[in-house]
Specification:
Elements: E1 5-6, E2 13-17, E3 24-36, E4 40-51, H1 54-74, E5 82-84, E6 88-96, E7 101-117, H2 123-131, E8 137-138, E9 141-144, H3 148-174, E10 178-192, E11 195-196, H4 201-209, E12 220-232
Antiparallel strand pairs: 1-3, 2-3, 3-12, 4-7, 4-8, 4-9, 5-7, 6-7, 9-11, 10-12
């Protein structure tokens, strides 16, 4: 798997002098970034029906979801990578201008299925098969990696190295020496990369007309930021 690592330097420095018993401190913010090729994609599909009879609406929605599950089985998607919500039902009304009243049109039922697809080279074929099912919408695709924690760890180590390097530069310039680390704070992970939004009617129609979703996510990245506080000797 192709992998590159890049460090983006974002340093926030300040030298903090407190009272004599507390000493002097140098606080540094370091940032590290790790790039990776995605090997999975997450998205959701919604099935929705409206019918004058509630049981008919629910039955059609269940049938549509069963069709989605069958496609998933055909493409080898494991049960752990498929999560379906409960069916949601509501009354549907429309406004009659001649009477000035709201009239019951029927009952809607909908169910959303979240899917993690791990064979990206078959994504177009897989989504083409899904578009042939009775679905109302496919929501935003987010690409990721099954071992994202290892890339987060790599970015964290780079952020720590970045902080240490910059703290050393500041200490040399100020004519002081770094002491022990007395505080480290991890500010969390920030992912950036490809997200395909196809939940709008226009995008959904285009994807359907093209037989399937064609996506080239390229490299994704995860960035970690750490705050490190050193004692000044």
């Amino acid at each position: 798997m192709k992998k590159k690592s890049v460090i983006f330097i974002c340093i926030i420095l300040f030298l903090c002098s407190s009272c004599a018993k507390n000493g002097k401190f140098l606080t540094v913010t370091g940032v590290g970034t790790a790039d990776f090729d995605p090997n999975l994609v997450n998205f959701s599909i919604t099935v929705e029906h409206i019918s004058p009879i509630l049981t008919d609406s629910v039955a059609k929605t269940k049938s549509g979801v069963m069709g989605i599950l069958e496609v998933c089985r055909t493409f080898g998607v494991s049960e752990q990578d498929i999560k379906s919500s409960h069916i949601s039902t509501n009354q549907v009304f429309h406004w009659q201008n001649d009477t000035g009243k709201r009239v019951l049109e029927g009952y809607s039922s909908s169910q959303t299925t979240n899917i993690t697809f791990r064979t990206l080279e078959k994504l177009e074929e897989f989504t083409a098969a899904l578009f042939k099912q009775d679905i109302a919408s496919m929501n935003r695709m987010e690409f990721g990696h099954s071992d994202s924690s290892s890339f987060e760890s790599e970015a964290t180590l780079k952020a720590l190295d970045n902080a240490k390097e910059e703290a050393g530069k500041i200490a040399d310039r100020m004519g002081v020496k770094l002491g022990e680390v007395i505080y480290i704070s991890d500010n969390g992970a920030d992912y950036s990369g490809y997200r395909e939004s196809i939940n709008s009617p226009m995008m959904f129609a285009k994807a359907s007309a093209d037989s399937g979703v064609v996506a080239s996510p390229g490299l994704l990245s995860v960035t970690r930021s750490v705050l490190v506080k050193y004692r000044i000797k």
